[in-house]
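Worked example 3. Consider a protein that binds glutathione.
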Amino acid sequence: MSDSRPDLVIYGSPVSPFVRKVAGVCITKGVDYEVEAINVFDPPAWFLEISPMKRIPVLRDRSVAEEGMAGTIADSSAICAFIEKKHPAPALYPDDPMALGTALFIEEYADTALAMAGGLGIFRPIFFAVSKGEAPGLEKARDAWANQLPPVFDVLETRLGGRDYFAGDALSIADIAVATVLMQISLVAETPLERWPGLAAHFAAMQALPAIAEPYAAAETIIRKALPAPFDLT
Ligand SMILES: N[C@@H](CCC(=O)N[C@@H](CS)C(=O)NCC(=O)O)C(=O)O
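Given these inputs, the predicted complex is written out as structure tokens:
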């Protein structure tokens, strides 16, 4: 009997923007994958061996190995680069050296500066509190929206420069990374971006892509059980 399971397993949860970034790359490339749930705050012992920094996502390629460290890669950026090499079309890393460097920088900026302000500043204080039955940390979230995010959005607006994509003239890992992390805010709060019209247009275009919308819908199903509607932080 043939094995109908996909080769690629993403360990984690669609609630993580980094899991959704990897899922978005798979969807864009038409590569089958499945998500195997891991609670990163209480992981099984075997997971720690494949995630030395105790983070999700970790990818397993079952065509390499079904268990243990072999066939696994930790960190969404490393995982996405692996998937690009294994499934080159459509390319999500530009050929042009400067466009490639730009894409990698924007991916890193989304995964660090944007994720710090949006994930740690807004998503966690709201969702972690609500899921424990506590009052949402709206003061901290409002401070992040008013003070931490605007300089990050300014950088993204400038780098985008009114174009459709962050790097080169096609969708790249940069666009997927920015959209998935921005949507971490949308899970718990409204995200009015009128002050950053280029970023707002880019965000709307990205939200219409199945690669962004489908993993987000999976996250939203989980989040809405504890939080029926996003908050207004303005
Ligand atoms: N740079 C890492 C970041 C991964 C990351 O921070 N994941 C979060 C979930 S969104 C996590 O595992 N957090 C666990 C913790 O904070 O203990 C990547 O891109 O994979």
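Take a moment to read the result before moving on. The domain at 8-86 is CATH 3.40.30.10 (Glutaredoxin). The beta strands are 8-12, 33-37, 58-61, 72-74.
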